């Protein structure tokens, strides 16, 4: 990373994707959580993914069958990140 330590750098979509599940589970560090929250505030795509994870989590908590469509969306999102890596600097 070229950014000097201690300086806040906006989180990129691929970074958010890595911690999104932990974020939804409330298992990220406060600093990470804040940065993800900040990203979700300005990135509709990641906010949508977070909502999808919550949907899945809630379904699991209720022991409902998981929405297959939601799983497919999450998988497609992960695959799109692998195929076409965003540069990590969303316009905000
Ligand atoms: Zn994003």
- Topology as a string of helices (H) and strands (E): HHHH
Structural class: mainly alpha
- Runs with pLDDT <50, length 5+? none
Q: What fraction of residues sit in β-strands?
A: under 5%
Helix content: 55-70%
Which ions and ligands are bound to the chains? zinc ion
Structural Rg: 14 Å
The count of β-strands is 0
Average pLDDT for all residues = 83
Number of helices: 4
Distance between the termini: 21 Å
Molecular shape: globular
Largest sheet: none
Task: Summarize this structure briefly.
This protein is mainly α and 92 residues long. The protein is built from 4 helices and no strands. It has a domain at 43-84.
Detailed description of the structure:
- The structure is a single chain.
- The chain is mainly α and 92 residues long.
- It has a domain at 43-84.
- The protein is built from four helices and no strands.
- It has helices at 13-24, 30-42, 44-61, 68-83.
- Helix 1 (13-24) runs parallel beside helix 3 (44-61), helix 2 packs across helix 3 and helix 3 (44-61) packs antiparallel against helix 4 (68-83).
- The longest helix is centred in the middle third of the chain and has 18 residues, at 44-61.
- The model has no long low-confidence stretch (mean pLDDT 83).
- The structure holds zinc ion (ZN).
- Zinc ion is lined by residues 13, 16, 39, 43, 45-46, 90.
- The site of zinc ion has 7 residues, from helix 1 and helix 3.
């Amino acid at each position: 990373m070229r950014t000097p330590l201690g300086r806040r750098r906006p989180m990129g979509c691929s970074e958010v994707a890595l911690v999104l599940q932990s974020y939804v589970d409330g298992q990220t560090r406060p600093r990470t959580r804040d940065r993800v929250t900040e990203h979700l505030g300005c990135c509709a795509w990641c906010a949508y993914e977070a909502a999808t994870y919550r949907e899945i989590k809630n379904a699991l908590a209720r022991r409902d069958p998981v929405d297959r469509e939601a799983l497919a969306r999450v998988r497609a999102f992960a695959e799109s990140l692998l195929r076409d890596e965003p540069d990590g600097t969303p316009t905000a």
